[in-house]
Amino acid sequence: MPPPARATGEDAPPHVERILRLASFVSALDRFTIPPLIVPIHASLGISLRAAAAVATAYFIAYGVGQPLWGAASDRFGRVRVMRGAVIGGALACALAAAAPTLPALLGARAVGGLLVGAVVPTAITYVGDTIPVRRRQPA
User: Are 31 and 63 in contact (CB under 8 A)?
Assistant: First the structure.
């Protein structure tokens, strides 16, 4: 496996930065859309609010637990490969969640989605640190 890219002082292509921004936005959107959906989940599946809230809990726990795993995976397999797999897998998990007919199916799909989507932002930040020169980054 090739070593991770390091900042070379050369500008990354503009499309790379746009893709990273879009992927990070979609990750944040996915994370923040589940709490407002608890009541509609409760109504559409005919379950208690407590059971519907478990969907958000499963997502957020998986999102947080996966963080250290994604750091190691991106070091080993490459930042782009990890982000690409996480975005594709997360999209599939979200599609499965949207079609889930039962609470267990929804819980599983959202937990897998949280685990996968949790890779995007930290891996994107690390990728920026590895490849975008300091002079091009947002100041502290």
Answer: yes
- Scored b (16 or more CB within 10 A) or e, 105-114 reads ebbbbbbbbb
Q: Enter the pTM of the model.
A: 0.81
Residue 125, SS3 per DSSP: helix
> What are 38-62's pLDDT values in tens digits?
999 999 999 999 999 999 999 999 9
CA–CA separation, 80 vs 87, rounded Å? 10
Plot region of 78 (φ>0 → left; ψ -120 to 50 → alpha; else → beta): left
Cα–Cα distance for residue pair 122/124, rounded to 1 Å? 5
